[in-house]
Amino acid sequence: MQEFLEKLQAALGPDVVQTEAADIEPWLSDWRGVYKGQAQAVVRPVSTEQVAQCMRLCSQYKVPVVTRGGNTGLCGAATPDARPDNIILSLDRMNQIRSIDTIANTLVADAGCILGNLRRAAQEQDRLLPLSLAAEDSSQIGGNVATNAGGVNVVRYGMARELVLGIEAVLPDGEIFNGLQTLRKDNTGYDLKQLLIGSEGTLGVITGVALRLHAPTHVRSVVLAAVESEQQALELFRLVFGACGPRLQAFEFFTDACLDLVLTHVEGVQLPFGDRHPAYVLIELADTANEEALTQLLEEVIGQALEQELCVDAAVSASLAQLQALWRLREEISEAQRADGPHLKHDISLPIEQIPAFVKTAEVQLRKVSPDCRLFIFGHFGDGNLHYNVSRPAGADKSWAAEWEIRIADAVFEEVMAYGGSISAEHGIGQLKRHAFLHHKDPLQLKLMRQIKQVFDPDGIMNPGKVL
Amino acid sequence: MQEFLEKLQAALGPDVVQTEAADIEPWLSDWRGVYKGQAQAVVRPVSTEQVAQCMRLCSQYKVPVVTRGGNTGLCGAATPDARPDNIILSLDRMNQIRSIDTIANTLVADAGCILGNLRRAAQEQDRLLPLSLAAEDSSQIGGNVATNAGGVNVVRYGMARELVLGIEAVLPDGEIFNGLQTLRKDNTGYDLKQLLIGSEGTLGVITGVALRLHAPTHVRSVVLAAVESEQQALELFRLVFGACGPRLQAFEFFTDACLDLVLTHVEGVQLPFGDRHPAYVLIELADTANEEALTQLLEEVIGQALEQELCVDAAVSASLAQLQALWRLREEISEAQRADGPHLKHDISLPIEQIPAFVKTAEVQLRKVSPDCRLFIFGHFGDGNLHYNVSRPAGADKSWAAEWEIRIADAVFEEVMAYGGSISAEHGIGQLKRHAFLHHKDPLQLKLMRQIKQVFDPDGIMNPGKVL
Q1: Shortest CA gap B15–chain A (Å)
Q2: Measured CA distances, B91 to B22, B33, B143 (Å)
Q3: B2-90 maps to which CATH number?
Q4: pLDDT tens-digit profile of A391-409?
Q5: Can you give the residue ranges of every domain in chain A?
Q6: Per the CB < 8 Å rule, is A288 touching B238?
Q7: A397, A432, B449, B464: which one has the fewest Cβ atoms less than 10 Å from its Cβ?
Q8: ipTM, 2 dp
Q9: Which InterPro entries match (chains A, B) (predicted)?
Q10: What is the CATH number of domain A219-334?
């Protein structure tokens, strides 16, 4: 171990290779403080070549490597496990935009660039990088791609995967994968970059990404609609999707229990209509220009929806301030949950048309486990993605969550699988869902994944203990 | 070989397993008549289970398998090579739509369904399956996915890959890969279906696909704009992309030489303006509704383009008949080429912003090989995808093409690679480009592809001699 560290420091210098306990300590846990591990060094390279030098030595000495982006993940994928010889490879110093092209509509950036900075850089050039999520001002694009991040605009623009044109990565043996192209079409053999996307640091280290940019959306219009049921939300989705086409930027859902939590714990928010209803849908339309036409379209569609009884009340934003106020009702749910105490979060997806049936039967199953638990269901309804969160019964101690975590998750995931859903829609596997993933995933697919892991990483040094 | 055939016939019956020379003969060549091979049998299963039975026997007896869709490919990927023991596995009898869902916006179909039929089935439900290409009324969706097909609407909707939600396939050993899900989000491990997409039958047999549908485009508007140069077309693309956003459905390009060919060989077509110009751009906008607003937007943008000198003349379609007449100028190019005699076709892609420089220097290189050859450049400009086609000098014999094919291709591909382009944008590798692919592709990527091939197909029975 000493020989490895000496060679690594000789190659990269003591500023890049940090080995003091005090320097390492801040890198050992995830931002939520759920996971904590060990490491012998933190390596913060400034170039792809330095990453390659590091990997060559790690490969030679069989040293496990945990690649770290912005540390905003929710599954512990970027947190080291208990192995004392782990090294943490942080991309934070590789944070340069390599190019933005408004003819080709591409952005090429180092993996350590902060997502929010890339979004703003595109915006300055009158282009849109549509990947948008709560942690965007901390998360790094390399991590976004390595975890195939989602967010609120997936219904229109797809996951991170659909925005990636090319990837540069360093493979475990130190070879540089030169796939940083910006081509829209390239049918020359297997699309290898797809394996790196969503692999959570288990196949290689992403050092650069080429992304496609979209046309800017200068105008937005939002409605909050109250619905009686998930079935009604589904019918409303069908109407809005068909009528608004690619203008449909977000279709979010939350139950009245979620709203209640927000109204209780967050200041300065209010419901735009007098009555409470079982659930709410927040719909955003966006377009390149012509706000009036966009708002008119939204009002027409919502008018039809009210007439056809696909919603029971609705409020369309008449100003940017109103638009933001409506969004806060949805966006503050996570903050309100934090204030309420520990919630058991399940980031799941379902065939969209199965959501109403799932919500019904999942609750029945859940109540068999814990009759009085509290349910908070919200999420990216238009993608079939629910954040199906569960908290302690009223009056119960906050330690309830830790005690019941596994039983609750088992019940939820069993039901998700029965409907052909996914136990991880957008957050990934990491450490958190590894057990459930290995239990539920199709054995043939697991076998193929392990063989592919073997191709890229025969010594198993990339993020051991995560995913597979 | 006899034992294998007997077992295969016993398992699947003589109607499925056809071994008479007369029955096999029609399956031995590609539709253009460029490639011809041999086979011991044609197998036409009616179910995924029959495909699995077939593959189990092929695997046991190490029999090479050439999967065949609609036989519309241009690279010979679905045509057998000279091995006498090949079997041709045709999916044509697996042609049922399994489901269409207008809430989830998904279509699940057998691999043997004709693309055009699926497009019409979606349209009947007021949804759009946007994959559209010249051969759509013959090509099968399994082949479209296995070759990651492109077409005219990629600029808006992406390649076939971006429409695929799930795949069912039979692996070489007969195991069934059950990936036929319709989920929008599923971050559980490596996205294995991405390897099958574009693998041209070298990893497994696609038996079913789940596709996402888009909102219908009930209104369209088209303009033909004349440009002085590729650089002007590029600037025009920037303007239109930014102003029209997701309405931009097609951005096609062709030179005056292509137009000349169409006017010479195709009846009933005419240029909508008096003067000829160096090149032309055909732009289509489409939207869910409101034709007037769409045409007005297109007229405004083209007005700006004329003012800013991003084009030199333009004609906007005022009726469906005019719209179709404008499209014919672009769509009839292939037919006109056929009438003109053999053309050497190069389906290439480039970083879009490099197209003007490429067109200049590629012609210089080409003229060094053949000073008087004739150049016909057209294609999906908005995707950086050119059909860079070359024909014999005026007065030369038609045998010129066959004689010069390799030298011309070498010159074109060298130049493509110098600009960071791709030697196959949307047509794939097959037999046609295998040599060039193995020569030009990055060695690390080739090595990884071979290892992945080994994982899926250790005995090398899937489409040997194609791609890798």
Answers
A1: 31
A2: 19, 21, 9
A3: 3.30.43.10
A4: 999 999 999 999 999 999 9
A5: 2-90, 97-212, 219-334, 341-427
A6: no
A7: A397
A8: 0.97
A9: FAD-bd_oxidored_4_C, FAD-bd_PCMH, FAD-bd_PCMH-like_sf, FAD-bd_PCMH_sub1, FAD-bd_PCMH_sub2, FAD-linked_Oxase-like_C, FAD-oxidored/transferase_4, Oxid_FAD_bind_N
A10: 3.30.70.2190
